[in-house]
Amino acid sequence: MGSKRKRTPKEAQTDPVAAQQPTQKRSKKEDSSTTEPATNGSTTTTTTTTTKSKPPKVTLFVEHPTGDDRKREAELYDQLGREDESERIKAAHSIISSLLSGDGVDEPILRRHLEKRLFRGLASGRNASRLGFSLVLTEILGQLYGKENLADKKYTGLDFEEVKKILVKSTTPFGNLAGQEERNHWFGQLFGVECFVRSGVLFQDEKKWEEILGMLLGLSTKKSWLKTQCGYVIVQAVAQMGKKMAEETLAKLAEEGFAKTPEGVGIWITALDRFPDMKVPAQPWRNPLAGSSLAALPAALKDSGREQTSDDGGKKPKAGNWTAQLHFVWDLILAHFAKAGQKSESEAAEQFEQFWGRVVDEGFFSKNSSDSQKFSGFMIFQKMLEGASNCEFIVKTLFSKNLMACLMNQAAKEDRYLHRAAIKALKALETAAHHNPKWLPTILKGLFGKHGAYNFDQRTNTKTIDKLLQNTTSDTIKPVLKALQLKDPSKSGLDLEQYYQALGNYLLRLSSALSEEQYAKESNKRGVAQKAIKVLAELAYSNKAVPENVRETLRTRATSAFAKLTSRSDAFGDLCDAILSIETEVDPDDELALTVLPRAFERLKDLLDSDKTTKETEGPRQALALLFAVGILQFYNQDPDVMDLFDELEECYEKLVGESDEDEGGISEFLVEVLLAMVARPSALMKQVSRQVFEAFTPLMSAEAIKLLTDPLAADESAKGQQALFSTEDEDMMDAEGGSDDESEIEDDAALDSDVEMANLEDAGSDAGDSDSEDNSDDGSDEEEEDEAEKENQATLDAVDKALSEVLGTHRLDQDADAESDDGSDMTDSEMMGFDEKLAEIFRHRAKATSKKKENKDAKETVINFKHRVLDLLGIFIKKESAQANPLVFEAVLPLLNLIRTTTAKPLANKAHEGIQNLSKGIKKARSEGNTPDIEGDEHYGMLVKLHEEAAKDPSHAFTKAVSTCCLTVASLMSNEEDAEKDDMAKVFSLYAETQLKWFRGEVKIQASFFSDWLNWCQAHANAAASAAAAAKKEEK
Fold it and tell me: Could you give the CA distance from residue 762 to residue 950 in angstroms, rounded to a whole number?
């Protein structure tokens, strides 16, 4: 019988009666198995899904079961209550077959199973018993009173009234039962009634349905939590009955006061959707969704007026308590409007707008609504978003006045009572936009509209708009931009400055929403950034309506967007197009600008001309076009050095297109000078552009260009080194403390945040993406610098104390023993004036000393940051060209080793070491593909000699490792040269032997690992040679 165990979550989810939503009834597989009776007593679905071969012979149940028969029955009914659906279906098939297949069992046997097993099983809370037992009962009832009509033919003692009595007797609680056990019994009775409904046997005989309807109405008054489930069973019944029976059913429900309840609304909607022309009781309403009924509908859907007498004098049934689960009536309402929208979208939109405003907005979100009603309102909002897949008119209406006010208010702070519900509603918006990108403009208009706020994210302290904009596609970018750009900015609720700042942020988000990986994969979003940047550039440079004080901020946003765009290797064209689209006025008195700017535009268009581009020149032409585009942008930003840049770019252009009289190879030297000037600027845009341009020109690099690139690596990391690297007029540009506005405006962008010039060495290391180990290795040097700074500060303070003591004639408290006693005399006015002058002089000296130290520190950081940028370019060249066996990569080896040996910044040394490792890997890859650098053997040997000399300059482990890597790379090339002289490797062995002898004698200091690496390399080559010889012998045999 009943169990005290609570229903499991799985049972609750699949419970067709206890569930309040249609989506939570039993699966289609079970539905079909209970409504399609088969000739052998089993379900059609079960037969087709569980038995593909000829079914085995069925053994019928017996009247007096023995031990084996009882064991078989017990096992089948145990399987029928299990949570596994396939086991339940298999057991149901066996039980139905054992009762009704063939001629079927005798009536006493069937009665025993109905009384003692099946109906009692409905009252069990064990696992999924109700689902399994109702499956069998539905099929049996269908064969007793349906098409087979076995109750008249064979089982005359089991007529409808008798079976109904068995149900009531088996499931009515009696005695002093525990609460859960009583609940199980009532739910069992409800499941039994549902079995009659689902079997489809009630609607041929009006009397049978009246009896079942009476039971349902009676059950709905027993317990408040049964009311909703009873209503849903009636909805299922109405969906099966004819028009006349539906009219009588609605009349009965209206008489019982069931109409003005959520369940009644659902029943009315179901009936009217099936039979639009049916006769409906005049009271309390003919159609609950009609305009005339909307005044009374909110009270019904909010379950108000509990235990009240209705207007027509009938007593309303007890309403269920509030629950966090949304009522099934909202699924029916949504389905009704979706169906109406297919017939006439305009009429459906008008009806839904009236319904939403009167019922939901004023009913669930008014000032007098309770928190529970507002919570339900948020769930209704989510339900409409999730279910309105092809009904944009529904989504358009959802952003109503009271709902939006409540949504923004509750989402703004975490301590608000409905904060989590509001956040969930906002996430539902994001999900809807993700699954239906075409809705995005509609959603944005709703959030920005008269009931929303243009600065919605600020008002709600969320990133809803940012996340929504990530769903913009090439098809929706135009309406999205239209939604963002209000025709009348004053309607945004913000002043003009705030509006344009918010618009700039939205456009920046649109232009940088995709990562490089997403940009490559999601082709439907590639046009988004291009169009957004064009609008942003137009606002920043061309739109006269934008206030002057905001224009500078927008230009910063535009520069940040360009920097993000240039990080994508194939997006240079978008940047060029955006800059070409800028239309701004030039001072007519500025003759230089009137000549330089048109020429720059002419060069840019020429470089982008596809007719003049070949496969070999495509990369360099695009890169140079990018430089001209950046130059034009700098001109608009009023950069003072832009004229010099245009002159240098003009020379590069002439060399590239062959108009220059000088050797074409000189382009690389000019280009390196331009790029070095660009990377010296603390700007993410300059850094990204310089990398892309340099990567395109790496095949054209010359030895002189590599020398120009590596020379800055030898500069002192001090004020003296800064002076050597930069001219005095560039000092302001190289001020590391100034940072860059460009980077500070790119929020939540890790890729660009690392490009900002930092004021400490650790961050300078992270600028290049150093590994965690490199960051950790820098900790020691940071601590040493802090200790040194502390000592310097203490020495300065002691000097100040001493100077003050001499002027004041005082001493510190810890010097009482050495101090002379004060005579206690007062100072005269003239002495006081002299005293003030001495104090001022002391503090002037102190300020000068502090300023000098800060300048030295800033100079050091500036040089280190510049070297990081140079190493970035050099790393690109090494990684790309070493794999192509370009011999020029070895021109960078000695400068890199010198940097590792001399720098005081460990991240810088680590990055240089990484470059050497990449060189070794690239050469190895090139050799595996049959390519080797075109270098003579003597040049190899000369390089190896220099490397051995370099190894003796620093005995540190890291430096030795780097030198050893280079030596072994060169040795590998010498050992593999086909046309090399026989004594080349002998020279290598002699050189190592000579160096080792010097080390043995103490003439040089070198780490022992330098020689162990060499021995390991020799061992590996010896093993490879032995394997090759063995393989050759094997082939000969």
Answer: 28
